[in-house]
Specification:
The chain is α+β, with helices and mostly antiparallel strands and 259 residues long. It contains 6 helices and 12 strands. 28% of the residues lie in helices and 32% in strands.
Length: 259
Amino acid sequence: MSTYDIRRLTTIDEMPLMQQVEEAVWQMSPIPVHQLYTTVNHGGLILGAFDGDQIIAFSYGFPGFNGEKTYLCSHMLGILPDYQQAGLGEEMKYEQARHASDMGYDMMTWTFDPLQSMNAYLNLTKLGARGAHYKINHYGAMNDRLNQGLETDRIVIEWHFNDDEPLAQPDISNLQALVDVQNNQPKTRLDRFNDKHDAFTVPIPRDFHQIKTDDLDLAKEWRHATRPAFEMLFKNGYEARVAVPDQANQLTYYYFKKE
């Protein structure tokens, strides 16, 4: 059971609570109160997590439609730094799925930076969601603390939360990696791709945020080296299913399976 109180935010007086976490996490101008309030009154869902009376995290979602079905677009999940890496993100996602199911949704979708290993591990390994699409520079230039200076490539997650379950940790030792890494320098290896193979891997750094802080040029190299590998796999019918940590080499490997 969670040690925190996770509940829906529904009144106009509660909307500034979400804004507090937005500003603390991203140092960006928050979504206007009137927009948030309109969202929760038209099929959207905002959850807040509280430590006593203090809001420490939120999730924000609104209705989406792809031409065939409606779903919950889970656009933002923000957690105050002191509460990160403690399993709260997973709790928030499952609570979001529970409410979404009660509202009539059976799928959630969201995006994340494919070089952020913690997010990959949560989305794929813990939740069992699927990396379904790849978007190049999806949001254009962003000037918040986490994205400034880097193209905003994103993986689109699809989570059929009533059906999808986490996969068992796969043995990736004999799979081809479409990126080589030597001395933390990535090199694209599309010559290894053959669509007759059922699975491939793509390595990313364990701590991309630190690389970006220390060496922005190296961070850009990682973006440009992994992008063709991700593109090749997604366009040939593979999905990202698991993120496999390699602590010895400070890497995390995506496990891609043909669907």
